[in-house]
Amino acid sequence: MGTREWLTANNGEVVPASVVSEITDAGGGPAAGAWWVGESGADGNFLSDAAIDWIEEAANGEH
Known about the structure:
Elements: H1 3-9, H2 17-25, E1 37-41, E2 44-47, H3 49-59
Antiparallel strand pairs: 1-2
């Protein structure tokens, strides 16, 4: 499963390091204030609400 498919199938879940790496490689480093960076904690890293909404819209063909 590719990153795009993983993001669509697992939208809102903990983001594995391999997916964060793919996003970073595409030019979206997880710097402070990056629009796609959400909460992080003991379970791992999450996407922001804006990123989750964007992925949902893209998955529904709204982009």
